[in-house]
Write a structure and sequence with these properties.
Helices cover 37% and strands 15% of the residues. It has 254 residues and is of the alpha/beta class. It has a 7-stranded mixed beta sheet with strand order 1-8-7-2-5-3-4, sandwiched between helices. Strand 3, helix 4 and strand 4 form a beta-alpha-beta unit. Helix 5 runs parallel beside helix 6 and helix 6 packs across helix 8. InterPro entries: Plipid/glycerol_acylTrfase.
């Protein structure tokens, strides 16, 4: 109920007015049943715009820091994150990563949509980075289809360091569901997990038209913090496949 009120009464109408969200391929989201919504991650606002574009509720995981802030601001942020369906998790790795995986699987067992960013963190420069294998393991263990999504222009509205996004049209392109049932029972095979993660990331790349970097976004951020040069753009796509010839998607004409 709280989610519905936030999406349709309190916050959603304001976001729609400010960002005029648009979507291409909305019909690719199944009307019922569990599915993994796997998206590129360009800005914080992704997690607010994407749920507006999908009629069904989408549950995301969010870093626990969002729920532990102090003072009035901290309480407001925690209240807001709860209202939009974000589940707090510790993202420090190891046991925390396993707990996040289990939380996602629990959401999928309930027959709902689970949102995840395969890159593991926001892109530092608008390029698409290598997918972590968590999304692949979740897909194989749950048996749920994966819906690839490309967010569009959110990094323009909210570049790194900008708190309040610029008011402008923002959208997403949603691809056809990916079925990985052929790998059932192979979720412990690291080579299969890598292949599945790369296939998911390639599908996102084919929708977004981004430049691809064959390295993890977290590593790129660490290099930037040390003042080192950015990692070069790859001449191949995920899994060594040829780069898709796709231009950056534009808002459809009305």
């Amino acid at each position: 109920m709280f989610y519905w009120v936030m999406r349709n009464v309190l916050v959603g109408p304001l976001l729609r007015l400010a960002y005029q969200p648009w979507v291409v391929g909305g019909k690719n989201v199944p009307r019922t049943g569990a599915a993994i919504v796997a998206s590129n991650h360009l800005a914080v606002i992704d997690s607010f715009i994407l749920p507006l574009l999908i009629s069904r509720r989408v549950t995301f995981l969010g870093k626990s820091d969002y729920f532990t802030g102090k003072g009035l601001k901290g309480k407001i942020v925690a209240w807001f994150m709860t209202g939009i369906g974000v589940i707090p998790v510790d993202r420090s790795g190891g046991a925390a990563s396993e707990a996040a995986l289990r939380t996602g699987l629990r959401v999928l067992r309930e027959g709902t949509l689970f949102g995840i960013y395969p890159e593991g963190t926001r892109s530092p420069d608008g390029r698409l980075y290598k997918a972590k294998t968590g999304v692949a393991r979740m897909a194989l263990e749950s048996g749920a289809p994966v819906i690839p999504v490309a967010m569009v222009d959110t990094e323009v509205a909210q570049p790194v360091g900008k708190t309040i996004p610029t008011f402008m049209p923002l959208g997403a392109v949603i691809g056809e569901p990916l079925d990985f049932s052929r790998y059932k029972g192979m979720e412990s095979d690291k080579f299969v997990l890598r292949a599945v993660a790369d296939e998911i990331e390639y599908a996102i790349l084919a929708l977004s038209g981004q430049e691809y970097v064959d390295a993890y976004a977290a590593s790129a951020k660490e290099r930037a913090a040390r003042g080192e040069p950015a990692i070069p753009t790859s001449e191949e796509g995920p899994g060594g496949l040829p780069l898709p010839e796709v231009e950056k998607p534009q808002r459809p004409k009305r």
